[in-house]
Amino acid sequence: MKRLFRSFEYLSTYARALAGAFFRLISAGLALPALLMSFGAHAQTPDVYPSRGITIIVPFTAAGTTDILARLVGQKLGEKFDKSVVVENRPGAGGNIGTALVAKSAPDGYTLVMATIGTHAINSSLYKSMPYDAVRDFTPLTRVAMVPNVLVVNKDAPYNTVQELIAYGKANPGKLTFGSSGNGTTLHLSGELFKLRTGVPITHIPYKGSTPAIADLLGGQISMVFDNMPSVIQHIKAGRLKALAVTSSTRNAQLPDVPTIEESGVPNYEVWSWFGLLAPAGTPAAVIDRLNREIVAIIRQPDVNTRILELGSVPKPETSAEFGAFIRAETDKWARVVKEAGVAID
Known about the structure:
single chain; alpha/beta; D-Maltodextrin-Binding Protein, domain 2; 3 domains; ten-stranded mixed sheet; 12 helices; globular
């Protein structure tokens, strides 16, 4: 009993000492703020990221290549983090509207953008006024895929090759039109470069995404579209559209019988689209590292890698620094093309 009493007495003394220290801190105005700051700092550490759902902004309409790739990666990222990953479409102004939204978002890793060659390499040379700086306002995560464009026409079109299309355009000036996912997008510049290299007059019809452009092509309202392969490959394989050529320097494994535009007789023609994820500038380095590590691992998963290849794309996982250097090089390249083609958007 004496031993038990001494134990209780010891515990009581220890408790009184702790309580006294706590109340002395409170009287000095330090304890509660210190505790709250400690809790807040712990809640914000990268070790607990993510603590809530993530949004991936797609700055184009649903069902296009940007959307397809965002949903493919987003689903796997949600499974990995055990958190919701929502893909939100914010189309308009060649991708500038949705991209600017991310640039102005909180730099906490919870709002990302699936960027494209348009939003982060071309638009800065096309638009006189940009709502964001493609380099300064973002931190790259990783490229996801490189994608060739493909020149497609209606299945009933009176031309079956690039040379037949060129001959038709020259014999019928003013009749050919091409649709794109918007002014300044790679689909737009693919057409402008084709006009520049062939001398064929073709009227550009911009849409708010490739999906409505393809709908009009299927309906016969426009003559052709230079679209990303993942958006149209099923239409091609189903016979609803004819593929005349791919814009890459080599043929694509998914369409081995379709020639490149260059081998079809149009010299110095090569266009690749690309897609990658970025976060707002200022996002903590530890969060960027975590996102890069997880997304690169997702792209390398056999089922994801296979799906990207099935879409006619080439998987391109890389480091944040590598993606940043690539964006800067692409910006310089397309600035020269835009100047040569004489394309400008107010």
